[in-house]
Amino acid sequence: xxxxxxxxxxxxxxxxxxxxxxxxxxxxxxxxxxxxxxxxxxxxxxxxxxxxxxxxxxxxxxxxxxxxx
Length: 69
Known about the structure:
This protein has three helices and no strands. Helix content is 84%, strand content 0%.
């Protein structure tokens, strides 16, 4: 019986924690500052992606002008 009581308590505890997380996520989704931070992180990620794509420029590295014959 002790194991069953512990399992029931654990189930309710996990359920309560999930409700807390869901409420907090709902709060965050309505905050403008949260979306501002998400937008800034997306811009940084986009800039890093562009730098990675166009920074190495493999097309120009493989291009050469033949001299002479």
